[in-house]
Request: fold
Amino acid sequence: MLIDVMFSALLIAADIPDTTGDNTDIMATSGAPPKPKSIWLVDGPPPHPADNAPNEHRHALGEKLFFDPKLSGNGEVACASCHAPDQGWADSRAFSTGVPGTPLGRATPTVVNSGYSLIQMWDGRFASLEEQALGPLAAADEMNAVPAQVIAYLVDSDDYQNMFGKAYPGEGITLQTLAKALAAYQRTIIVIDTPFDRWQRGDENAVSTSAKRGFEVFKDPNRGNCAACHQAPHFTDHGFHNIGVPELRNTGRDAGRHKVIPIAVLKGAFKTPGLRNISSTAPYFHNSYAKTLEEVVEHYIGGGRNVPNLSPSMKPLQLSHQEKADLVAFMKSLDQIPAQEEPSNE
Amino acid sequence: MNRVTIATLLTVAPFAFAQAAEHKVTQKDRKFDKQHIEIKVGDTVHFENQDDFFHNVYSLSDSNFFDLKSYPKGESRANTFNKPGVVNVECAIHPDMKMVVEVKE
Ligand SMILES: [Cu+2]
Reply:
């Protein structure tokens, strides 16, 4: 009796259900051990710095800031102007234009799942979303904001006074709290429940047979070899590679990551993007060289153009028409919105 | 043998006969298997890639700058650390791969 009581107390303390009942029977009767969890599944929201835990006030403030064009130098460009929710939280243009109207040097990366990124930007020059947030805001060719004017505008607003007070009590309206709010908001823009994810959790009907075959091509080192860099679970190695994308403009070669870290292997190298929601974020690559996922696949089949410092991981691929189509079907299964075509058993 | 020669021998001998040590670090699952190692000046560290993809090893430190380029699974490349100091070693391809080599006199 005493043992019983103690055991129950332990169970309560550990907050685990009593396993002496039905569960044990099920465990005893089911023959095969449970399938191990897929390494490709993502559990829960992104990690956050200790001083910027998510809450509803931070989310609300970050959202208001993200969509507010008045933060910019001319009052017309918000974060959302280039990271548009209806365009995969990026934009469909090859190069965005900021306040001065001149095209930027690189394509707009999506905000989706950026909270899971271990490093930010195409060239990784910011370590965290908090650091990143102030970059585009102050950049002359992007939002062209004068920090002192941004703070003055926020301090003048009763709404913002109220919201900053609730989100960051005692911390004031500063560039730091502005960046923290934007980061906290962006950590809520996540896509982790795609048809592919549902399939990985066991729903065999969540994706088409073509997508399933495409995933095998994707992982196979002798076929797609895509997973060498697009690794589990976020379809990225958080790394930098020169994949031989040709330059589109005659402004000279973009040195990419090499401008940040002057190590030879990084010349012309850019960050491996994650792939969830990929079908919503055309065009592709750091300079929007590929307009469609089909063009992306063709680029890799060619092994990348013969550019200086091409990654040794890039080599021409031998893929059938079916395998190419399967790869595209697989990538489309990574969209939160279910793919158009019905799952089939071809 | 005069006194000067004896003094020279005594000073040089411990260095001349000290064996430089070899150390091994592996790269596996996008990690260095050790986060921190302590070595002596003149020691060599071998970095072996056990992953199915390429890795790099470099340090931008003033005391021990080096760059082992990129190399595939099964290959090992080495660097000899000739100056004392705390050396931050990383993979340039995968910036989350970091370790520290502490080089002691
Ligand atoms: Cu590496």
In short: Residues B 55-56, 91, 93-94, 97 surround copper (II) ion (CB under 6 Å). The first strand of chain B starts at residue 22 and ends at 28. Helices of chain B lie at 3-17.
